Amino acid sequence: MNEGSYFVGWGTLALINAGLAQGKNRSGLNWFLISLLLGPLATLCVVIIDEI
Questions:
Q1: pLDDT by residue for the chain (52 residues), tens digit each?
Q2: Which end of the chain is more exposed for a tag (fewer CB within 10 A), N or C?
């Protein structure tokens, strides 16, 4: 797997997290930016944390 694949996967995960956050009435943009930094950890936070 080449280095570009990691960037595509990380960006896709960030978009998925933004969609999940919007579905829970949270800011999609904020969670997108958080996801760019934290990646899979942000996914866990979006799914598990009820209110922030």
A1: 677 788 888 999 999 999 999 998 889 999 999 999 998 999 898 888 876 5
A2: N
Maximum CA extent, the chain: 37
CA–CA gap between residue 42 and residue 52 (Å, rounded): 13
In the 3-class helix/strand/coil scheme, how is the chain assigned residue by residue?
CCHHHHHHHHHHHHHHHHHHHHHCCCCHHHHHHHHHHHCHHHHHHHHHCCCC
Domain boundaries, the chain: 3-48
CA dist 34 and 15 (Å) reads 11
